[in-house]
Structures are given as C-alpha cells and as structure tokens.
Design brief:
Layout lengths: L1 H11 L16 H13 L2 H19 L5 H30 L2 H12 L1 H38 L4
Length: about 150
C-alpha cells in the first residue's frame, strides 16, 4: 500500500500551485474535460494504470481463495473507468490550485516535443522513483534507529 501511495504522490505532484485561484466552487464540465486531457497527454494516466495490477496483486495475496477469473474480470472493469473516476475525484483538488487556463497551458507543454518525451518517460520514472523512495525511507529509518540506540532509547 505504501508503494501505491508513493506512486500517486509522485504522479499527482505535477503542475504548480496558483495561490491566486479564487473559485472554490465545483469544477465545470469544461474544467474536468481539460483536466482529463492534461492527465492523458502528461502520461499520468499510464502511471495510474500501473498501480491497478499492483493493487490487484496485493488483494490476490490476501484473498487466495478467490478464483483467478474474478480478479481478471475485476481488473478489466476497473481499467475501463480508471481515468474518468480518478479525474472526477481529483478535479476539486486541482480546481483549488489551477485555473482552466493553467491546465490548458500545461497541456500545451505536454503536446510539445519535449512534453511528449516527458509524458512517455513518466511511467518508468514513477516506477524507478518508487524503488528509490523505498531505499531512501529505509536509509532514514536506519539512521533514526542508530540514533535511538546511541542515545539509549533502544
């Protein structure tokens, strides 16, 4: 579960913060559509799609008596609506921080040659970053544990 949360934090970290954003209302359909387009052209949807098999693998381990056919069908079903469901849930968060114009400009970047290169690289970057994040977390835990031992708390 920590891996999945780490991936989502990495992926959702795209874009800047627009503190001047004043509209707190629900995002319009136009805004939601622009967000979906930005998520797709940025490659974030591909990264989200990497998470589903990982989640299902963990659930399969926890529920080994459930037939494989169930998992296969359930995973296919989740993949069909993954982006739309996630965009609907993320729209209010993005709406607080980014205007429709911001999303359109970010989308323009991702439609440029370098943006397309970045989008294509996103899933691999997220996967490799997850491994680095785990190593980093273990390094911090080891240092804290050593410090606790040195100070006599362990």
């Amino acid at each position: 579960m920590k891996k999945i949360l780490f991936i989502l934090v990495l992926v959702l970290g795209i874009g800047g913060v627009n503190v001047a954003q004043t509209a707190q209302a629900q995002p319009s359909k136009e805004y939601v559509a622009a967000l979906k387009k930005m998520i797709v052209v940025s490659g974030s949807d591909a990264t989200f799609k990497l998470v589903i098999p990982q989640m299902f693998a963990m659930m399969k381990q926890q529920l080994p008596n459930v037939p494989a056919e169930f998992w296969s069908e359930a995973e296919k079903e989740m993949m069909k609506t993954l982006v739309d469901d996630l965009v609907e849930m993320l729209a209010p968060i993005y709406h607080k921080r980014l205007t429709l114009s911001d999303l359109q400009e970010i989308t323009k970047f991702y439609e440029s040659p370098v943006g397309k290169k970045m989008a294509a690289a996103q899933p691999a970057i997220a996967t490799e970053s997850m491994a680095v994040g785990q190593q980093w977390g273990m390094k911090i835990a080891t240092k804290v544990q050593e410090s606790l031992k040195t100070k006599g708390y362990l």
